[in-house]
Description:
The chain is of the alpha+beta class.
Amino acid sequence: MATATPSPADSAPTMPVDDDILYEVVQGQVQEKPGMGAYEAELASLLVAYLVTFVRDHKLGRAVSEALFQLDRVQNLQRRPDVAFVSNARWPFHRNAPKVAAWDVIPDLAVEVNSPSNKANDIISKIDEYFRAGVQRVWVIYPNARTVYLYESPSEVKILRAGDTLDGAPLLPGFVLPLATLFGEPEQEQDQAQEPQGPQAG
């Protein structure tokens, strides 16, 4: 994981030279964000697509993918959730997001899609940081287990499995998404469907 020299909280940290690198800032250190696998990236893309359509149609705010947020200016903490929702109350719907590296607003919802490159301790740390900053809900998606953990606080969590339906209330009233739609067919079922069939008895 690439890091830069720590910077004081009141100064900007040194950014990666390569603009294509996704990074976060933790205690003034720029840290390259591990990339997601193809399936994990697809799940994040699907979720943000559903959310973008819903929040625009209902003028609730905006949904974004891989945006960098300024969570704590004093601690120089910037995080980049895989998906985030910013309500109209926190950033007016008619106002475009600023043309800056880190958006100085706290999202209402932060979503992390767990990848093989993620460490459990890192996910736990992010959940704590999000809630300390004022994020109202955190969703953590575990693709291999086909489950979604819905956090109302660091110690309050509801676990949804593939047969359940994700309900966005109270942040996103009316938003419902069956997890079977998000995850698609189980990998085993896909493999079986693709297996060649033997000759039929005459």
